[in-house]
Amino acid sequence: MNIARYISHKIDGADSGSFTSSVTKIAIISVALGVAVMIVSFAILEGFRNEIQSKIFSFGSHLQISKYDTNNSLEVEPIGEPRLVSELRRFPQVKAIQPFARKTAIIKTRDEVLGVVLKGIDEKTSPSTMRQNLVAGKFLTFPDTAASTDVLLSRKIADKLRLKIGDEALFYFIQNPPRVRKFQVKGIYQTGLDEFDDVFVLGDIRQIRQLNAWPDSLVGGVEVVLRNFKQLDPVAESMYENLPYDLKLDKITEQYAQLFDWLQLLNRNVVIFLLLIIFVATFNMVATIFIMILERTNMIGVLKAIGATDNQIRSMFFFRGLSLTLRGMLYGNLVGLGFCAMQYFFHLIPLDPENYYMDRVPIHWDPFIIVVLNVATFCTSLLAVLIPTYLISRIRPVTAIKFD
């Protein structure tokens, strides 16, 4: 029988109703709250990150290759698609390639006029990730015989122009000679990001080819989706070295640097916040063990008098602190994971899309992070338990027995 563990268990039952009992409850609650808040914080942080990155990638992918041009216009010189695509597919990190073309236009309805950018895509090459942002209507159709006249508007553009699903609108393209096309609103999307919702209309790339008199082999550029976003920098560097001199490669993190900087800042703030939580929980555990030792000073003196070693007595309080830590972690996981599950399935907490880019608090499940948080809490709590137990070696039996 482990004497230290046995006495620790007996102390646990004997503490009920004493001051130590109240302190141990506070310690358990502090550990539970710390674990719960950390789980919820990281789940929300990763949820925000994934949601925003997913919205950005749906429009720009990870890498974008186009003709090198000193002009900052959204319309660029065309490049040959077949040869470029075959070169890009040689990279094992490439998951998908989506050709695109852009053309500025003015939408005119009966009452409103608005300047937009028509972005043409080719659904035959790879399915568009923009489907995830669809909030009304259907996605674009791509007939085999002719260019589609369907377009996808953002919620903001549709509201400004007072257009709804099925309505038709005239698109005026400023070129020589000027061209006019009638398009039908097939669907409405919403990303919550002004960089996209205020500007872009989605359509068939063949319409832009016809307007620019391009053959089917030419596109405005290609967007590249990688298998692992974390490999963006090394893949971009390797890919850039193999591109022709007249092509440029843009990383999504540079095109929308302000959004990724905001995510990085958010991540830094959460880390600081979590460190403070761990510090508070650790301090409470240290204080709890100190109080337990002070209240049991007489018992420590008696145990030393009958031959108990410092290590045995120290182990007794160590097991006591271990029990408090495990109980706090259990309750914290139940509360944290329970809250995340409620928000994930029932969307209890809404958000204003104008400020947060989404209409609800997002939750992302990452078992690895949950395990790491629990291990970190467990280790720091055990270290906190060990610190005050070294006070036991300084307690003298005669003085401790007389202690009141």
Got a strand count?
12
Q: What is the domain total for the residues?
A: 2
Judged by helices, strands and strand pairing, the structural class is alpha+beta
Largest sheet: 10 strands, mixed
User: Cα-atom Rg, whole angstroms?
Assistant: 32 Å
**Tally of helical runs:** 14
Helical residue percent?
40-55%
How much β-strand is present in the residues?
15-25%
Question: What does the average pLDDT come to?
Answer: 84
Rough outline? elongated
The secondary-structure element order is HHEEHEEEEHEEHEHEEHEHHHHHHH
Uncertain stretches: none
- Rounded to the nearest angstrom, the distance between the terminal CA atoms is 31 Å
Written overview of the protein:
The radius of gyration is 32 Å and the shape is elongated. The strands form 2 sheets. Strands 1, 3, 4, 5, 6, 7, 8, 9, 11 and 12 form a 10-stranded mixed sheet that branches. The chain has a two-stranded antiparallel ribbon with strand order 2-10. It has helices at residues 3-14, 19-60, 81-88, 155-161, 194-197, 205-212, 232-241, 252-255, 257-295, 297-305, 310-346, 353-356, 367-389, 397-402, and strands at 63-67, 79-80, 94-108, 113-121, 134-137, 150-154, 168-173, 179-189, 200-204, 218-219, 221-226, 247-251. By secondary structure, it is of the alpha+beta class. Belongs to the ABC-4 integral membrane protein family. LolC/E subfamily. Residues 26-237 form the MacB-like periplasmic core domain. The chain crosses the membrane at residues 26-45, 270-294, 330-349, 369-392.
